[in-house]
Amino acid sequence: MVINKEDIKKILEIAANAPSGSNSQPWKFKVKDNQIYVIALPEKDHPILNYRNRGTWIAHGALIENIVIASSSFGYEAKVKIFPDLSQPNLTAVIELALGLPKSDSLFSVIPLRATNRKQYEDRLLSDVQKQEFLKSASSFKEIEIKFTEDKEQRRLIGEALSINEVVTLENEKLHKLFFEEIVWSRPEESIKKSGLYLKTMELEPPQQAVLKLLRRWRVMKLFNHLKFAGIIAKDNAKRYASGAGMGIIIVNDRDEDFLLAGRAMERLWLKATQMRLSFHLITGTMFFWQGIQNDTANIFSKEHIEIINNAYNKITEVFNINRGVAALAFRVGLSKEPSALSSKKPPEIIWV
Ligand SMILES: Cc1cc2nc3c(=O)[nH]c(=O)nc-3n(C[C@H](O)[C@H](O)[C@H](O)COP(=O)(O)O)c2cc1C
Q1: How far is the CA of 328 from the centre of ligand 1 (A)?
Q2: Strands, E, within 136-187: which ranges?
Q3: pLDDT tens-digit profile of 265-323?
Q4: For the CA of 197, the nearest atom of ligand 1
Q5: Boundaries of each Nitroreductase domain copy (predicted)?
Q6: Residue 306 belongs to what H/E stretch?
Q7: DSSP 8-state assignment for residue 102
Q8: Atom of ligand 1 nearest to the CA of 54
Q9: Which residue puts its alpha carbon closest to atom 19 of ligand 1?
């Protein structure tokens, strides 16, 4: 069966507004008749922050979920096979479209509106109905588990555990370099590149932006590190992370394909939050550093940082009472003003075969 090419093009253009590490958009597509081949480009994500390409798989999960949702609105049933061919590890999915009368997914209209919001959120909880509706949106993925807390003290602890990412990143020369390489400093630069971490989306005050510019030189950063400056930044961010209505975590089995499912579930939560006019922020550094250390691939950390990372990860598992699997990602959700800026996306690369 041949599907309208224009429909597929539109579906992929809409779906490509998926989140990805530092807006790397590590994907391209091949389309043959009614089949969409979703291909990962993990080299666009940095290995230290992307243990076993699992950050790429999370982004692909979100992308694939968007394709499924968008297809339903174009009147197609989408059958997804994830990692269909072991000999092609970067082929994350083959999605077969069939004409049918699927129920159009109401999350479709908010795919283009989904965005990261790194602002401070309001100190206001969700109603029970809101909370249920939010969490139910991702309940169909049985292989993963979502835990959510509204408790203020628990959120404070998790905020602290997530913010050690900043300490480790700014005190380690290699990570410092990587972080600053990903920052896009101005709107003109961003509108050309359409990838990277656009400064304005970081939600810093003008004096903080000026300090960040100074810190891009490792020599200057080192001086500031003598004053334990990274710790001061982390403390500030920890408060921000703990702000809002609640924090959640997605727990997976220690299998690569489950990170893709975590991405699918996360995207549904994010879109649901967007539909409910809530803000959403994904925070993952602590979890990726920890996985790297466990598997001895990330021998770039000092002994002191390894201890900080282990303690932080243990705190997360303790607070959420995790006794199996791996914490794949954490997020916060809540009411907030609109983000100050959005990240641009590239048009998807589609190869028609
Ligand atoms: C695997 C993964 C990890 C991410 N980790 C973080 C993070 O630790 N902190 C953060 O602020 N954003 C994080 N993000 C969000 C991306 O930076 C964001 O999606 C990207 O810059 C595009 O912006 P958008 O979400 O507004 O479209 C992550 C996204 C993905 C897919």
Answers
A1: 13
A2: 145-149, 183-184
A3: 999 999 999 999 999 999 999 999 999 998 866 578 999 999 999 999 999 999 999 99
A4: 21
A5: 3-31
A6: helix 303-319
A7: P
A8: 1
A9: 19
pLDDT at position 1 is 66
Q: How many residues does the chain have?
A: 353
What's the confidence (pLDDT) of residue 298?
A: 59
Three-state SS at 286: helix
Over the stretch 293-306, which tens digit does the pLDDT of each residue have? 988 665 789 999 99
User: How far is residue 333's CA from residue 119's CA, in Å, rounded to a whole number?
Assistant: 11
Taking the C-alpha atoms of residue 69 and residue 6, their distance in angstroms, rounded to an integer, is: 17
Closest-CA residue, ligand 1 atom 31, reads: 20
**Residue 287, pLDDT score:** 96
116 lines ligand 1 (CB under 6 A): yes
Provide DSSP, 119-162.
Answer: SPPPS-PPPHHHHHHHHHTTTT-TTSEEEEE--HHHHHHHHHHH
Q: Is the CB–ligand 1 distance for residue 138 below 6 Å?
A: no
What residue ranges define each of the domains in the chain, with the CATH number in brackets?
Answer: 5-114+344-352 (3.40.109.10), 128-334 (3.40.109)
**């703990």: which residue's tokens?**
242
56 CB under 6 A from ligand 1?
no
Q: What DSSP character marks residue 89?
A: T
Q: What is the pTM of this model?
A: 0.97
Ligand 1, atom 28, residue with closest C-alpha: 21
Ligand 1 atom showing the smallest separation from residue 339 Cα: 26
Model pLDDT for residues 90-144, shown as the tens digit of each residue: 999 999 999 987 788 999 999 999 999 999 999 999 999 999 999 999 999 999 9
